[in-house]
Amino acid sequence: MKIYAAALCTFAALASTPASSQQLSPAEQRIVAEVKANSAAALGLLERSVNINSGTMNHAGVREVGALFRKELDQLGFATRWIDMPKEMQRAGHLLATRTGTQGKRVLMLGHLDTVFELDSPVQKWKLNGDRVSGQGVSDMKGGNVVMIEALRALHRTGALDNTNIAVMFTGDEESAGEPKAVSRGDMVALARQSDVALAFEGTVLDQDGRATATVGRRSSSGFELQVTGKQGHSSGIFGERAGYGAVYEAARILDGFRQQVVEPDLTFNPGLILGGTAVSHDEQGSRGTAFGKTNVIANTVTVKGDLRYLDSTQRDRAHARMRAIAADSLPGTSASISFHESYPPMAVTPGNLKVLELFSQASNDAGLGPVAAVPAGLRGAGDIQFAAPHVDSLDGIGATGSGAHSPSEDLELASIERAAIRTAIMLYRLTR
């Protein structure tokens, strides 16, 4: 991890200063011209997609947005199909588009069709605000989806898609991935194993100087469950030899032990739900629970549900070991057990990912759009790319530029669609030569 962190700092320093621009080839200049010529139509495509509600649980809406992008990909010569999920998973499915060729790298491109705004959401749809637009999912991530389509369109119009090997996958449940994830992300993992490079188009984050960045690492999304027991008895006996300390004090000791002793950069753990008393019940599906207890009775049980995020498996293993040790060092009259579950694997910062960023930054710089630096891995949440990253060199966060994701103020800078499409098209052209 220290090696990767050092490499990331080195690349960030290099990317913060202008690199020498290589003149675009005639073919690349034609590709850029095609992106610019279609910019107005691209915004029309974005508007149509944003005006379709596609909250994860609005399966009809997710499929409708999928049909919109499927039509575009069909016109670009891709073979397309809809991948249904088992009915019991209650998810709409995914759109897959492929081109089979023998030229250059095998590229996997990832986007998602769903948003956090469900069918009854009061958040407006498409609304222009000068040089920006707001609306449901405009930044996360329908803008990124349009970037993908427009980059591919420019390549198609110049004949540069011929004989390439490119797969495009739009998932229908990125905001709330279907369980089990071995099924909902099984096709993505299989595609990643057959690819040389994976590119994901979540929004581009600008640094403090307004320069574009990309994501070479993302922390895992996992969780922990702490179960604590104590001796029920009269409250007057608390701290005594016979009664002990009770489950609530033991839970507090353990959690504060985590806070003070499990400390590493980019490692976080959050106890999001605590239930304690003499009778506790927890509704896993609804993420809620009930607790009964009396102030004159020592609590005999506590349940804690928490979130745990880490950069790589080595950091995870250290955290797990330390948390288990803290939980096992029980106060008198108590005992505790801790378990962990994985949700999204980490996207570790690897030399391969940094190399992909270097190629992307060079493409951006050559197009006159400036270099692209790495976002510190600890600043990004979980995303689909993390299922691909363990199997293939990967880069994320190269879509459009917006703000306020997942909120009523979510918006997008309109001009960022063109910029991101130019960067992507040149990168794809170079990868597939």
Task: Give the overall shape, derived from the CA principal axes.
Answer: elongated
Count of structural domains: 2
Order of helices and strands: HHHHEEEEEHEHHEEEHEEEEHEHEHEEEH
CATH architecture of the largest domain: 3-Layer(aba) Sandwich
CA distance, first residue to last residue: 33 Å
User: What is the CATH fold-level name of the largest domain?
Assistant: Aminopeptidase
Looking at how many chains there are and whether they match, the oligomeric state comes to single chain
Organism: Massilia cavernae
Protein name: M20 family peptidase
Keywords: Hydrolase, Metal-binding, Signal
GO molecular function: hydrolase activity; metal ion binding
Describe the model.
The two termini are 33 Å apart. It is elongated and about 85 Å long. It has a six-stranded mixed beta sheet with strand order 1-2-6-3-7-16, sandwiched between helices. A four-stranded antiparallel beta sheet has the order 4-5-18-17. It has two domains: 302 residues, Aminopeptidase (3-Layer(aba) Sandwich); 124 residues, Alpha-Beta Plaits (2-Layer Sandwich), CATH 3.30.70. The N terminus is likely disordered. Strand 4 and strand 5 form a beta hairpin. It contains twelve helices and 18 strands. It is of the alpha+beta class. InterPro entries: Bact_exopeptidase_dim_dom, Peptidase_M20, Peptidase_M20_dimer, Peptidase_M20A. It comes from Massilia cavernae. This is M20 family peptidase. One of its GO terms (molecular function) is hydrolase activity. Keywords: Hydrolase, Metal-binding, Signal.
